[in-house]
Design brief:
The chain is of the alpha+beta class. It has helices at about 15-20, 25-30, 115-150, and strands at about 1-10, 35-40, 50-60, 60-75, 80-85, 90-100, 105-115. Strands 1-7-6-5-4-3-2 form a seven-stranded antiparallel β-sheet, covered by helices on one side. Strand 6 (about 90-100) and strand 7 form a beta hairpin. Helix 1 crosses helix 3 and helix 2 packs across helix 3. The radius of gyration is 15 Å and the shape is globular. The termini are far apart.
Length: about 150
């Protein structure tokens, strides 16, 4: 299992950051490079517990679909989604939010496993972990900018 851990400090209210992190429309805006679109399940607005969304995006030059489900949610401190269908063997993304000194720390714990055994593990090590980290960092930067611009 490969794990990516990120902390993003955001000068904004925890409720605002929590809602931006689960906003499907903002997510689509943050993934312009991959042309990611919500094509099934919840396709707009704020995703809720037990809802699914199917994404279609171009990663590594290939259009792929990924269906995820929100399996737990405690507003405004956490939600967790898992992959139901997609290119990973397994995928789980914990979104955690903590108030700190009048700001919010958004924490991502993204765990995934590639298919194809040892070849998949090698691919994770040399390429996919960095690719996914950059993907998450770009998304987090947009959430941060959006949350902080509203507060100004």
């Amino acid at each position: 299992m490969t794990t990516i851990y990120l902390e993003t400090p955001i000068k904004a209210n925890i409720h605002k950051v929590f809602d931006l992190a689960r906003d499907i429309d903002l997510h689509q805006k943050s993934t312009g490079k991959t042309n990611e679109k919500a094509v099934g399940g919840r396709t707009s607005g704020l995703i809720e517990e037990n809802e699914t969304v199917t994404w279609r995006a171009r990663h590594l030059g290939i259009y792929q679909t990924l269906t995820t489900k929100i399996i737990s949610m405690e507003k405004p401190v956490q939600f967790t989604d898992i992959m139901l269908k997609g290119a990973f063997k397994t995928m789980k993304h914990k979104h955690i939010f903590k108030e700190r000194n009048g700001s919010t720390v958004m924490i991502d714990v993204f765990e995934f496993k590639s298919p194809f055994g040892i070849v998949g593990r090698f691919f994770n090590h040399v390429f996919l972990k960095d690719y996914m980290r950059k993907f998450l960092l770009e998304r987090n930067e947009l959430i941060k900018n959006e949350a902080e611009s509203v507060n100004m």
